[in-house]
Amino acid sequence: MLTRTRGLVTKAVSFGEGDKILTVLSDRYGKIQVMAKGARRAKSKLTAGTQLFCYCDFILFKGKSWYYIDQVEIINTFHKIRNDLVRLCSCTYLVELANEVVQPGQPPGKLLHILLEALNLLAGEEIESETVLRAAEIKILAYAGFKPQLGFCTSCGNTCRSGYFSPVSGGVLCRDCEKTDPYGYNIDIGTIRAMKLMLRWELKKLDCLRLEEHIHKELEKVMRAYVAVHIEKDFSINRFMDSIKKMK
């Protein structure tokens, strides 16, 4: 039986002589594995709609192991992302992060909307790419149940106005509790405020948020440490992105 769903291609792997296996974050079925038969052949009607980052209207039928594409209609390819290597790396990281935190068949909730909005913004130039990346990252983590505690000390629960962030503890620590994690980070209070705004505001609203360079660097440092602790995956795309930035 055929079924219809909209979805974002978050991973595409070559299979056999001319096929692809896609990971698709769909609005109806969550994260699913999709076989695109013949998608790598030159004259295939599936080629364009089975690229990474493609948001499409899929008509599928369910097999024993995965879904198969019957038809695909492109809604958005976010093609301008590919014009800038740093933005391309940022988008790659975000879809890889989403793939890690979403379980197969789990309803996507707001996660699909967050990814689509982030890709759309990164395909444009209205907002700094670093701001979009960090905001989308922290929203994805919050969706997955890893929302950092930024208003109260994660150890004693008291209101916290310090700038000590502990990835292991899951958020900020007050001055009295800092010693419980000697590997935390002393960061600018402005960095904590930026994280709060990123959690609270929609991504498109962040065009009015102007962050100083040291805030961007602190956000990158603490969020990478936070992801390493709670997601337990080394995202190699981040190292490649760092090398690209150094060449600019």
What is the beta-strand fraction? 15-25%
Per DSSP, the total helix count is: 6
CATH class of the largest domain: Mainly Alpha
Sheet with the most strands? 5 strands, mixed, barrel
Mean pLDDT: 92
Uncertain residue segments: none
Compute the number of strand runs.
Answer: 8
How are the strands ordered across the major sheet? 1-2-3-5-4
- Overall structural class, as computed from helix and strand content, comes to alpha+beta
Fraction of residues in helix: 25-40%
Which term fits the overall shape?
A: elongated
Q: Spell out the helices and strands N to C.
A: EEEEEHHHEEEHHH
**Fold-level CATH name of the largest domain:** de novo design (two linked rop proteins)
CATH superfamily of the largest domain: Recombination protein O, C-terminal domain
What does this 3D model show about the protein?
The protein has helices spanning 85-101, 111-122, 129-143, 189-200, 213-230, 236-247, and strands at 2-15, 19-26, 30-36, 55-62, 67-76, 164-166, 171-172, 185-186. With 248 residues, it is α+β, with helices and mostly antiparallel strands. It has two domains: 2-76, OB fold (Dihydrolipoamide Acetyltransferase, E2P), CATH 2.40.50.140; 79-247, de novo design (two linked rop proteins) (Up-down Bundle). The chain starts with a strand and ends with a helix. The model has no long low-confidence stretch (mean pLDDT 92).
Name the descriptors:
248 residues; 35% helix; elongated; 3-stranded antiparallel sheet; 5-stranded mixed barrel; 22% strand; 6 helices
